[in-house]
Amino acid sequence: MKLGIIGLPQSGKTTIFNALTGGDQPTNASAGRIEVHTAVVDVPDPRVDTLSGMFNPRKTIYAKVTYADIAGLDGSAGKSGISGTLLNQLAQMDGFIHVVRCFDDENVPHAAGSVDPARDIAAMDGELLLNDLIAVERKLERLQDERRKGGTDKTLNERQTALFERLHEILSTETPLREVEFTSDEEKNLSGFGLLTRKPLLVLLNLGEGQAAPEIKLAHPCPVVDLQGKLEMEIAQLPPEDAQMFMEEYGIEEPGLNKMIRLSYDLLNLQSFFTVGEDEVRAWTVRRGASAHEAAGAIHTDLQKGFIRAEVVSYEDLTSLGGMSEARAKGKLRLEGKQYVVQDGDIVHIRFNL
Hints:
The protein has 13 helices and 12 strands. α4 (117-149) packs antiparallel against α5. It has a domain at 289-352: Roll (Ubiquitin-like (UB roll)), CATH 3.10.20.30. The strands form 3 sheets. It has a 6-stranded mixed beta sheet with strand order 2-4-1-5-6-7, with helices on both faces. A hairpin with a 4-residue loop joins β8 and β9 (280-287). It is flat, with a radius of gyration of 23 Å. By secondary structure, the protein is of the alpha/beta class. Helices cover 41% and strands 20% of the residues.
């Protein structure tokens, strides 16, 4: 899972990045400069801790999330669209966290002269929409050239032309493509095209210390969360004991990282399942609705190729009964086939043969 942190200049993107990753990247990067910082973070999950306590493995491995702090978007892509280098970085992301400035700070002037979250959200939406519209128009021009020159698959050309004309019509109404349902064939045709408004997006309102979140009406529905960015960054950079005291003092129930990762999972429609044993307790990430066969592939391609059966027990049953042998004795450890839909928290063991 790779999420890009985007936003207009001086919105606090790097502050949020540091808050989520415990990093210490400088927060005064120059506006307009293309910079990307990445960090891989363990997904905090108390279920992993409980399973590790039960099995006492040699290794305990949490699921991972990669955050990328992407600077360079400033709402002024213009007729040419987003630059190639920046576009390449954005296209690699599974989704975006759009950091929107809500705090006032006379030492950090807003590029537009005033703090206006609704205006900034609209500016970023417009930049992403414009970029996709330009990309779709270029694709339609290439398809037209192919028809004129001949020598290409006529049926494929017609199918793609119809699809991209539909995309053009949607984008021309300023509708992000994430709001549109596509068939499985259309999804395949679009999978490598890197359209930015197809990617899931979460709006993060970056508040000042003690600031209440403003009420904002979004033109396009998407999840919204608020975070006191600077305060959360300071907490993330403290030793655990000091961080806990700091959180209690400010009435913060949990670090922003924990909340953001849960929201990130929801945003990307993901869930965790686990493998357990004396060697290793490990969390794995799959999409919601994934089959046991897909889960086997997430662990290792050999397990997917040689899949026979999946031994499955729910986290709740395993922990309440006290172990695998007890779960087996109570009939809670089940054998499932390839099409079994993995549930969040399942403990899975793949039987396979190559």
